[in-house]
């Protein structure tokens, strides 16, 4: 019998713990409107500013874009602030 394989569901909601230091730092960066570089797994870096986050997505406002880009939290490997 084959082993079962359950791929991770990127839309699966995990608990959002606002007391975690990483979440708190990102909230500060949102309030300060700091420009960021975000490294997304399998893609090039994205530059903009984080405008909100929830348990599944983070919204990045790209320079010159009229709408934010939604990135699945599990796909982000690095956040760097320029501020």
Describe the structure.
The chain is of the alpha+beta class. The N and C termini lie far apart (about 55 Å). The mean pLDDT is about 85.
Quick tags:
single chain; 83 residues; alpha+beta; five-stranded antiparallel sheet; 1 helix; 5 strands; 14% helix; 35% strand; globular
Helix content: 10-25%
Amino-to-carboxy terminus distance: 54 Å
| Proportion of strand residues | 25-35%
Radius of gyration from the alpha-carbon trace, in angstroms: 15 Å
Mean pLDDT: 84
- Structural class comes to alpha+beta
Element-level helix/strand string: HEEEEE
Topology:
Blueprint: H1 21-32, E1 36-40, E2 46-53, E3 57-62, E4 69-72, E5 76-81
Antiparallel strand pairs: 1-2, 1-5, 2-3, 3-4
């Amino acid at each position: 019998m084959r082993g079962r394989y359950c791929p991770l569901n990127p839309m699966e909601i995990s608990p959002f713990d606002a007391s975690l230091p990483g979440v708190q730092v990102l909230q500060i960066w949102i309030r300060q409107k700091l420009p960021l570089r975000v490294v997304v797994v399998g893609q090039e870096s994205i530059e903009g500013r984080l405008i909100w986050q929830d348990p599944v997505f983070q919204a990045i406002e790209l320079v010159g874009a009229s709408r934010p880009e939604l990135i699945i939290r599990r796909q982000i490997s690095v956040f760097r602030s320029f501020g």
